[in-house]
Specification:
mainly beta; 159 residues; 4-stranded antiparallel β-sheet; elongated
Protein backbone atom coordinates (compact mmCIF):
# COMPACT_ATOMS: atom_id res chain seq x y z
CA UNK A 1 0.00 0.00 0.00
CA UNK A 2 1.11 3.51 -0.83
CA UNK A 3 -0.24 6.72 0.63
CA UNK A 4 0.16 10.09 -1.06
CA UNK A 5 0.53 12.95 1.39
CA UNK A 6 0.39 16.67 0.72
CA UNK A 7 1.93 19.33 2.89
CA UNK A 8 1.58 22.81 1.35
CA UNK A 9 3.47 22.44 -1.97
CA UNK A 10 5.16 19.09 -1.26
CA UNK A 11 3.85 15.70 -2.39
CA UNK A 12 5.23 12.65 -0.61
CA UNK A 13 4.55 8.94 -0.69
CA UNK A 14 4.42 6.74 2.37
CA UNK A 15 4.87 3.00 1.88
CA UNK A 16 3.26 0.80 4.49
CA UNK A 17 5.67 -2.12 3.96
CA UNK A 18 8.81 -0.08 4.62
CA UNK A 19 7.32 2.54 6.90
CA UNK A 20 9.25 5.25 5.07
CA UNK A 21 8.10 8.58 3.67
CA UNK A 22 9.72 9.93 0.50
CA UNK A 23 9.20 13.32 -1.12
CA UNK A 24 8.17 12.74 -4.75
CA UNK A 25 7.38 16.27 -6.02
CA UNK A 26 7.36 19.95 -5.22
CA UNK A 27 4.62 22.00 -6.86
CA UNK A 28 4.19 25.66 -7.79
CA UNK A 29 1.18 26.14 -5.48
CA UNK A 30 -0.53 24.55 -2.49
CA UNK A 31 -1.85 21.02 -3.07
CA UNK A 32 -5.56 21.04 -2.18
CA UNK A 33 -6.71 17.59 -3.20
CA UNK A 34 -5.56 14.08 -4.12
CA UNK A 35 -7.82 11.41 -5.61
CA UNK A 36 -6.47 7.92 -6.44
CA UNK A 37 -7.66 6.24 -9.61
CA UNK A 38 -9.77 3.10 -9.05
CA UNK A 39 -6.84 0.97 -10.26
CA UNK A 40 -4.48 2.63 -7.80
CA UNK A 41 -1.82 3.20 -10.48
CA UNK A 42 -2.17 6.98 -10.66
CA UNK A 43 -3.70 9.87 -8.77
CA UNK A 44 -5.30 13.17 -9.73
CA UNK A 45 -3.63 15.99 -7.78
CA UNK A 46 -5.20 19.43 -7.45
CA UNK A 47 -2.50 22.12 -7.27
CA UNK A 48 -4.16 25.50 -6.83
CA UNK A 49 -6.49 25.65 -9.84
CA UNK A 50 -4.46 23.14 -11.86
CA UNK A 51 -5.08 19.42 -12.24
CA UNK A 52 -1.98 17.24 -12.40
CA UNK A 53 -1.64 13.49 -12.82
CA UNK A 54 0.79 11.56 -10.60
CA UNK A 55 2.13 8.05 -11.10
CA UNK A 56 5.14 6.25 -9.72
CA UNK A 57 6.58 5.85 -13.21
CA UNK A 58 5.97 9.31 -14.67
CA UNK A 59 5.91 11.48 -11.55
CA UNK A 60 3.76 14.62 -11.63
CA UNK A 61 2.46 15.71 -15.06
CA UNK A 62 0.34 18.79 -15.81
CA UNK A 63 -3.12 17.88 -17.13
CA UNK A 64 -5.47 20.89 -16.98
CA UNK A 65 -5.55 24.56 -16.00
CA UNK A 66 -8.51 26.50 -14.65
CA UNK A 67 -9.96 23.61 -12.63
CA UNK A 68 -13.05 24.65 -10.67
CA UNK A 69 -13.95 21.35 -8.99
CA UNK A 70 -12.33 18.29 -7.52
CA UNK A 71 -11.69 15.66 -10.21
CA UNK A 72 -13.87 12.56 -10.38
CA UNK A 73 -12.50 9.29 -11.79
CA UNK A 74 -14.68 7.08 -13.96
CA UNK A 75 -15.45 3.70 -12.37
CA UNK A 76 -12.89 1.96 -14.62
CA UNK A 77 -10.22 4.61 -14.00
CA UNK A 78 -9.86 5.27 -17.73
CA UNK A 79 -11.11 8.87 -17.51
CA UNK A 80 -11.31 11.91 -15.23
CA UNK A 81 -14.11 14.49 -15.25
CA UNK A 82 -13.56 18.02 -13.99
CA UNK A 83 -15.21 21.43 -14.16
CA UNK A 84 -12.77 23.61 -16.05
CA UNK A 85 -13.53 27.22 -16.89
CA UNK A 86 -17.10 27.35 -18.23
CA UNK A 87 -17.15 23.64 -19.18
CA UNK A 88 -17.16 20.12 -17.82
CA UNK A 89 -14.31 18.22 -19.44
CA UNK A 90 -13.46 14.52 -19.62
CA UNK A 91 -9.80 13.54 -19.91
CA UNK A 92 -9.19 10.01 -21.15
CA UNK A 93 -6.11 8.58 -19.45
CA UNK A 94 -3.71 6.07 -20.99
CA UNK A 95 -0.12 5.31 -20.00
CA UNK A 96 -0.19 8.00 -17.29
CA UNK A 97 -1.10 10.79 -19.74
CA UNK A 98 -4.24 12.39 -21.20
CA UNK A 99 -4.84 10.95 -24.64
CA UNK A 100 -8.12 12.64 -25.51
CA UNK A 101 -10.24 15.47 -24.15
CA UNK A 102 -14.00 15.76 -24.57
CA UNK A 103 -16.16 18.72 -23.59
CA UNK A 104 -19.34 17.15 -22.22
CA UNK A 105 -21.26 20.21 -21.00
CA UNK A 106 -21.30 23.98 -20.68
CA UNK A 107 -21.61 24.87 -17.02
CA UNK A 108 -20.33 27.79 -15.00
CA UNK A 109 -21.71 26.72 -11.62
CA UNK A 110 -20.71 23.08 -10.98
CA UNK A 111 -21.23 21.96 -7.39
CA UNK A 112 -20.50 18.23 -7.87
CA UNK A 113 -19.92 15.59 -10.55
CA UNK A 114 -20.53 11.84 -10.56
CA UNK A 115 -20.19 9.13 -13.21
CA UNK A 116 -22.83 6.59 -14.16
CA UNK A 117 -21.63 3.06 -13.46
CA UNK A 118 -21.63 2.29 -17.22
CA UNK A 119 -19.52 5.45 -17.86
CA UNK A 120 -21.85 6.69 -20.61
CA UNK A 121 -23.17 9.68 -18.62
CA UNK A 122 -22.09 12.14 -15.96
CA UNK A 123 -24.52 13.77 -13.54
CA UNK A 124 -23.65 17.41 -12.92
CA UNK A 125 -25.06 19.14 -9.85
CA UNK A 126 -25.17 22.88 -10.48
CA UNK A 127 -26.30 25.80 -8.37
CA UNK A 128 -29.47 25.94 -10.52
CA UNK A 129 -30.27 22.23 -10.99
CA UNK A 130 -29.15 18.76 -12.01
CA UNK A 131 -27.93 18.06 -15.54
CA UNK A 132 -27.15 14.79 -17.29
CA UNK A 133 -24.39 14.86 -19.92
CA UNK A 134 -23.24 12.09 -22.25
CA UNK A 135 -19.51 11.45 -21.76
CA UNK A 136 -18.94 11.58 -25.52
CA UNK A 137 -20.24 15.17 -25.55
CA UNK A 138 -23.21 14.28 -27.78
CA UNK A 139 -25.99 15.48 -25.46
CA UNK A 140 -26.87 17.23 -22.22
CA UNK A 141 -30.25 17.43 -20.51
CA UNK A 142 -31.48 19.47 -17.55
CA UNK A 143 -33.17 16.89 -15.30
CA UNK A 144 -34.48 19.19 -12.60
CA UNK A 145 -34.21 22.83 -11.65
CA UNK A 146 -33.95 22.03 -7.93
CA UNK A 147 -31.02 23.91 -6.42
CA UNK A 148 -28.07 21.61 -5.60
CA UNK A 149 -26.66 22.77 -2.28
CA UNK A 150 -23.71 21.17 -0.51
CA UNK A 151 -22.44 19.12 -3.43
CA UNK A 152 -23.97 15.80 -2.30
CA UNK A 153 -24.50 13.70 -5.41
CA UNK A 154 -24.17 9.99 -6.10
CA UNK A 155 -25.31 7.41 -8.64
CA UNK A 156 -26.70 3.99 -7.70
CA UNK A 157 -25.02 0.91 -9.13
CA UNK A 158 -28.40 -0.65 -9.93
CA UNK A 159 -30.46 0.75 -12.81
Amino acid sequence: GVWLLASADTLSEARLASGGVTQVATTSATINGIVWSPSGTSAAVMVGNHLDLWSGGAGLTALAQGAKSQPVWSPSGASIAIAQGQNVMVYHISNDAATQVTQVANSSSVVALTWASDERNIAIAESHGLMLAATDGASQTLLTSLKADGGALTWSLAG
